[in-house]
Prior knowledge:
Layout: H1 26-42, E1 46-48, E2 58-62, E3 67-79, E4 82-86, E5 95-100, E6 103-109, E7 115-121, H2 123-135, H3 140-143, E8 146-148, H4 151-154
Antiparallel strand pairs: 1-2, 2-3, 3-6, 4-5, 5-8, 6-7
Bound molecules: nickel (II) ion.
Amino acid sequence: MATRTILNDSDPTLRKKSRVVDRFDDRLHQLIDDMKETLIEADGVGLAAPQVGVLRRVVIVDDGERMLELINPEIIEQEGEEEGPEGCLSSPGKYGMVCRPVWAKVRAQDRFGNFFEVEGEGIVARCFCHEIDHLNGVLFKDLVTRMIDPSEWEDDDDEDYTLPEGYEPPDR
Ligand code: NI
């Protein structure tokens, strides 16, 4: 395994549409393993392959219990809508409020090509949407209703206000 460089949001690669994965080979497995290591090192919640310069439909999401490997992921069901703070490993130091579903179900393939479904709510649903957007060249800053300053939650002791926790804490 090795970490890969995360592209900045000004890189034109992040505006391209990623291609469907049809070969579930060693090269894919290497990409997945590298992305997981890169995500751990960056202390993020999710990472999409275009962020490391590979235009393939591969996403890693840390749902709090495990690192989900989502190949060719699609949102097949979603419920509700809520505005919440969001950031991106490709946009260090930038945070904004984005509307996302409260709950989402994703259909994807594993590293061997087997289909499976997984659901998530709150920050996990948000992350599914954010990372799948990356596969279509969409960045969170395109969807932001207003940019926010990290200090808006840095000094906030409200235990219920936990959404930003997953997305790159501002002091990193
Ligand atoms: Ni992102």
